[in-house]
Specification:
With about 200 residues, this protein is mostly helical. The chain has 5 helices and no strands. The chain has one domain (about 5-195).
C-alpha cells in the first residue's frame, strides 16, 4: 500500500475516534456531572463545545474524503465502474438529503447536542419528518453518502471505513445519546404523571 494511502487511513481513523470518543466523553461528563457548565453558564459552555465539536466533525468528514481520494480503484468488482459511480452519486444524494431533512426537523442546534446543555429546552420527543419512518435517520440512512463516496472513487478502504464509521456512530448513539433521551422521556413521563 502506498505511503499516502496509509497516511489517509491513519488520519481518518484518528479523526473518527477523536470525534466519537471525544464528543462522547464530553457529553457523558456533562450529562452525569454537568462538567462543562460547572464553571461557565450553559450558553458559554455550549458555544465552546459546539465550536470544538464542529471542528471534529469537519475534520472527520474531510479525512474520509481524503481517504477515498487516496485509495481509488482498489475496489475490484465485476460491476462496471460507471455503474458504481451512478450508484455512488445516488447514495450521496440520499445520504445528504436525509441528514439535511432530519437536521431541519429537529433544529440545527440539536445537531450539536444542545439538549445536553439545556435539558429543559428539548425538542419534541417525537419530531416529524424522517423520524416518522426511521428511529435515527441521521445515523442510519444519513450515512449512505459515505458508501456513495467510496463507490464513486472505487475505494475498498473507503467502503470498509464507511461501515466502521457507521458502526462507531451507532455505538455512540447507544452509549451516549439514547440513555440521555431515555432519562428525558422518563422525567417528562413522571412530570406529566405527577401533574394529573
Amino acid at each position: 500500500m502506498r505511503d499516502w494511502a496509509i497516511i489517509a487511513i491513519s488520519f481518518h481513523l484518528a479523526s473518527r475516534l477523536a470525534y466519537v470518543i471525544g464528543v462522547g466523553i464530553a457529553l457523558t461528563l456533562q450529562d452525569k456531572h454537568q462538567r462543562l457548565t460547572r464553571n461557565a453558564g450553559p450558553h458559554e459552555a455550549f458555544r465552546k463545545f459546539r465550536r470544538v465539536a464542529a471542528w471534529l466533525m469537519t475534520t472527520d468528514c474531510v479525512s474520509f474524503v481524503f481517504l477515498c481520494v487516496m485509495t481509488p480503484f482498489t475496489l475490484h468488482t465485476p460491476i462496471h465502474s460507471s455503474a458504481l459511480v451512478v450508484a455512488g452519486v445516488a447514495l450521496v444524494v440520499i445520504g445528504v438529503w436525509m441528514k439535511t431533512w432530519a437536521a431541519i426537523r429537529i433544529g440545527w442546534e440539536a445537531c450539536y447536542w444542545h439538549n445536553f446543555f439545556f435539558p429543559g429546552e428539548c425538542p419534541t420527543l417525537d419530531p416529524p419528518g424522517p423520524y416518522r419512518f426511521l428511529k435515527n435517520p441521521m445515523y442510519t440512512l444519513g450515512y449512505a453518502y459515505t458508501y456513495g463516496l467510496a463507490l464513486i472513487f472505487g475505494s475498498l478502504p473507503g467502503l470498509i471505513f464507511a461501515l466502521f464509521d457507521q458502526a462507531a456512530i451507532l455505538a455512540f448513539y447507544h452509549r451516549v445519546e439514547k440513555p440521555h433521551w431515555e432519562s428525558i422521556a422518563e422525567a417528562a413521563y413522571h412530570g406529566g404523571a405527577s401533574g394529573d
